[in-house]
Specification:
This protein is mainly α. 76% of the residues lie in helices and 0% in strands. It contains three helices and no strands. Helix 1 runs antiparallel to helix 2 and helix 2 runs antiparallel to helix 3. The radius of gyration is 14 Å and the shape is elongated. It starts with a helix and ends with a helix. The model has no long low-confidence stretch (mean pLDDT 85).
Length: 92
């Protein structure tokens, strides 16, 4: 898995996760309800934002030498990010 792509995806997904969890927790949410949904939606938004960020900055040609398409790389990263909610689940 390419390191720079992984770093950017995790950063973008985590920022969306924090935004999607902190605001509902401040107003009404229970952690057991908000956190899994924040991880899921944050992973989706993080993948979409990473794709368009790399497209805007013209970084995707650097990843053309991989055997796997861009969508598959981002899908695998999304599934790996979902393990974050499984790690947090026993604490709530």
């Amino acid at each position: 898995m390419p390191g720079y792509l992984t770093e950017k995806f995790i950063l973008h997904s985590f920022l969306f996760f924090v935004a999607l969890v902190i605001l509902p927790l401040l107003f009404y949410g229970q952690p057991s309800y908000v956190i899994p949904r924040g991880v899921f939606i944050g992973g989706i938004f993080g993948g979409i934002y990473t794709f368009y960020d790399f497209k805007r900055r013209n970084i995707w040609p650097l990843f053309d030498n991989f055997r796997y398409p861009k969508g598959l790389l981002l899908s695998v990263l999304f599934l790996l990010f979902q393990a974050f909610s499984l790690i947090l689940y026993p604490f709530f």
